[in-house]
């Protein structure tokens, strides 16, 4: 069973960044208003997420480590209809199978919290503990019991960049939540709650303030909001294009093409514009590939969504003096 657990875990947890994503999404699901991410060696020796969310009772804490014990869906179509990010009920179980995990959690209404110390799925310690309201999960020595996987991890710089990507996506999707990222005792990000434009500036820098063109459009099918970078601020490198559907980050070459078409004739050669765009759509009009690491979706009426994105983006760019 522990081998089966380890194999299943490999599907969900591929690198420190996937662990970070799962833990931080759980904090969002728990209605946290403050989420702190602490890393040592790009998450290879320690990755810890501390939140002030609703916490778990002792029973729930034990249950949270059981595979599928908490699964919220029966079918793939349920994804994106849920109001929570999590749906498979296997992230914590998977993480526990491939690391040394310490979980501390306390719901507001309880005086004492619960401490669980787990090693490769075995619960080594369980006891009441005095702790803040919310949940703290430390994942130590990821893949310590799967040397092949551990050796396969990339350099710290590379793994850290993947973590930052996940961190930025979640921070952009939830500007009302405070986020901190601390890597080996250095505060790398300290993001206060605010509007999306403020969040963008806190993540990417002051120079973005003047570079944002607001984008807003609503049709019977979709609602679009967000910001497009003004053309002359486009960068030589890709990587600052963010598209969210119902608050989940997705990759879509098709919709990226719609955005890029709005910039046609405006961009300096070989540059890529910044954008952060949110699409809200009734989940019954989308189809999702539920593989845990995929961020791809299909729309019933792809062309209609494309048309809205293109026209909204064109309008945003035209409405501002470029
Ligand atoms: P899923 O998110 O798909 O339900 P997870 O394995 O990620 O599965 O988490 C299992 C369960 O543990 C969650 O459904 C939730 O009830 C609980 N849980 C996990 N993390 C937290 C947290 N930070 N705060 C409160 N509850 C949590
Ligand atoms: Mg989850």
Quick take:
Helices cover about 30% and strands about 30% of the residues. It is of the alpha+beta class and about 325 residues long.
Structural write-up:
Helix content is 31%, strand content 28%. It has two domains: 2-191, Heat Shock Protein 90, CATH 3.30.565; 206-319, Ribosomal Protein S5, domain 2 (2-Layer Sandwich). Mean pLDDT is 90; it is low at 73-77. By secondary structure, the protein is an alpha+beta fold. It contains nine helices and 15 strands. Helix 8 (253-262) packs parallel to helix 9. Adenosine-5'-diphosphate binds next to helix 2 and helix 4.
CATH C-level class of the largest domain:
Alpha Beta
Order of helices and strands: HHEEHHEEEEHHEEHEEEEHEEEH
Number of strands: 15
- Count of domain modules: 2
Structural class: alpha+beta
Strand content: 25-35%
| Rounded Rg | 21 Å
> Looking across the biggest beta sheet, what order are the strands in?
5-4-3-6-2-1-7-8
Output the CATH topology of the largest domain: Heat Shock Protein 90
Give the CATH H-level superfamily of the largest domain.
Answer: Histidine kinase-like ATPase, C-terminal domain
Bound ligands, named by name, code or SMILES: adenosine-5'-diphosphate, magnesium ion
């Amino acid at each position: 069973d522990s081998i089966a657990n380890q194999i299943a875990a490999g599907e969900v947890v591929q690198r420190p960044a996937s662990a970070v994503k799962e833990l931080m999404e759980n904090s969002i699901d728990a209605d946290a208003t403050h989420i702190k991410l602490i890393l040592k060696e790009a998450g290879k020796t320690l990755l810890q997420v501390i939140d002030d969310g609703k916490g778990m009772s002792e029973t729930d804490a034990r249950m949270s480590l059981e595979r599928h014990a908490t699964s919220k869906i029966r079918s793939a179509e349920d994804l994106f209809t849920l109001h929570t990010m999590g749906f498979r009920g296997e992230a914590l179980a998977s993480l526990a199978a491939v690391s040394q995990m310490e979980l501390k959690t306390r719901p507001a209404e309880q005086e004492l919290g619960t401490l669980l110390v787990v090693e490769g799925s075995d619960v080594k310690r369980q006891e009441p503990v005095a702790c803040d309201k919310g949940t703290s999960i430390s994942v130590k020595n990821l893949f310590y019991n799967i040397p092949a996987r551990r050796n396969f991890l990339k350099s710290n710089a590379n793994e850290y960049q993947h973590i930052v990507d996940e961190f930025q996506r979640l921070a952009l999707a939830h500007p009302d939540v405070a986020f901190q990222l601390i890597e080996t005792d250095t505060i790398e990000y300290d993001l206060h709650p605010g509007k999306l434009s403020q969040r963008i500036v806190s993540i990417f820098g002051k120079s973005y303030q003047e570079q944002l063109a607001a984008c807003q459009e609503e049709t019977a099918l979709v609602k679009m909001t967000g910001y497009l970078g003004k053309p002359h601020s486009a960068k030589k490198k890709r990587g600052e294009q963010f598209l969210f559907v119902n608050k989940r980050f997705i990759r879509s070459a098709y919709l990226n093409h719609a955005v890029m078409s709005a910039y046609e004739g405006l961009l300096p050669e070989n540059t890529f514009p910044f954008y952060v765009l949110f699409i809200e759509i009734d989940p019954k009009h989308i189809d999702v590939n539920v593989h845990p690491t995929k961020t791809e979706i299909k729309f019933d009426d792809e062309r209609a969504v494309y048309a809205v994105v293109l026209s909204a983006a064109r309008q945003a760019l035209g409405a501002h003096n470029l």
